[in-house]
């Protein structure tokens, strides 16, 4: 299939698909004349890339998986799982930091209310 159809199926722009290929996230795409010919495997990979991006992964974070895949000719599930675990750990840290910030903001709000009473302290 041509890039237009792949774009429709995956939601990735043509420019993004070319970028994924240039970065090595897509295996060598065969050509018919000057046109690239994509297959179902490319659709799956592009869809996975889009899903990973929507979950906060940067393209650079996906490269190690692609490198192992190219070297060992298999999808490195263990590398992907480790990347997901690392991302989850990072998110948990961000959540803890956000919760602490929320507590501190609540304290600041209360200090302001105590120092400068308002008619309606719920504002």
From TrEMBL:
Cross-referenced InterPro entries: DNA-bd_dom_put_sf, MerR-type_HTH_dom, MerR_fam
Keyword Lyase appears in the UniProt entry: no
Alphabetic keyword roster: Coiled coil, DNA-binding, Repressor, Transcription, Transcription regulation
Claim: Repressor is one of the keywords in the record: yes
SUPFAM superfamilies to which the protein is assigned, alphabetical: Putative DNA-binding domain (SSF46955)
Gene3D superfamilies with a match to the protein in the record: 1.10.1660.10
Recorded coiled-coil stretches: 81-111
HTH merR-type domain span: 1-68
GO molecular function term, any single one: DNA binding
PANTHER family: MERR-FAMILY TRANSCRIPTIONAL REGULATOR, REDOX-CYCLING DRUG-SENSING TRANSCRIPTIONAL ACTIVATOR SOXR
Protein known as: MerR family transcriptional regulator
């Amino acid at each position: 299939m041509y890039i237009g159809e792949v774009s429709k199926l995956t939601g990735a722009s043509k420019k993004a698909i070319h970028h994924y290929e240039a970065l090595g996230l897509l295996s060598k795409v065969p050509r018919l004349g000057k046109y690239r010919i994509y297959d179902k495997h490319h659709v799956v990979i592009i869809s996975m890339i889009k899903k990973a991006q929507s979950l906060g992964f940067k393209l650079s974070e996906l490269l190690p998986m692609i490198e192992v895949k190219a070297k060992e000719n298999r999808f490195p599930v263990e590398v992907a799982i480790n990347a997901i675990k690392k991302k989850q750990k990072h998110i948990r840290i961000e959540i803890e930091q956000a919760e602490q910030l929320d507590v501190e903001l609540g304290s600041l709000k209360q200090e302001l209310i105590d120092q400068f009473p308002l008619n309606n302290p719920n504002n």
